[in-house]
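User: My collaborator sent over this chain with a note saying "see what the structure looks like." That's all I know about it. Can you take a look?
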Amino acid sequence: MKRRMHIACTIACTVWLVVSCASTVPPMAETALDWQSVADVGVPTIVTREPDGGERVTKLWLAVVDGEGLIRTGDSRWFRNIERDPNVVFRIGGYAYPLRAEVVTDESLEKRANAAFREKYGWQDWIIHPFGEPDANLMRLVPRD
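Assistant: Without extra context I'll predict from the sequence alone. Here is the result:
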């Protein structure tokens, strides 16, 4: 009897742990994203579409410059997804926002964005980019048309 109770408790605890730790998908926002209100969020997520149509959820860094939300990455899998389909879902502040990612080519904005990333993420940015400005793809997140 003791053994059965132990097994039942183990199963119940395991089920509770799995259910309680499962990631929840935030609701879609009904208003536009105010970038200044989320500028201090450390690690939001972005959802892109894989070639097979599946979702790829990626944690990333965010910098807000001139009232725009900016993200960056190297030649990552999620960047290739954006090249194929720039429509993304950005999860931040408890909500999901359907947005479009646009590659930034303005060198002045790139420099200011890199400085903003360095200021916000400090030593972590120094470790990833020890020689200064990264050779990365900078993107702004804008409302979908």
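A starting point for your reply to your collaborator: Residues 8-22 have pLDDT under 50 and may be disordered.
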